[in-house]
Amino acid sequence: MDAPNRPPTDADTARELARVEAEPLLPAEKWLIGGSLALGVALLGLLLWVSRTYFPIGP
């Protein structure tokens, strides 16, 4: 058995992660991911509009 005070190595971490089963995303998690992406795209569009409206390039 491993010594209790020894930090885990990369190999120990990889073995432990390999044993964990993948869990599907919950509907709320999917909604949060989609909402975050949509909000990010909308805010980028707003930033682009503000920059082109109030800070035009050139004469």
From TrEMBL:
UniProt protein name: Uncharacterized protein
Keywords: Membrane, Transmembrane, Transmembrane helix
Organism expressing this protein natively: Frigoriglobus tundricola
Transmembrane segments: 31-50
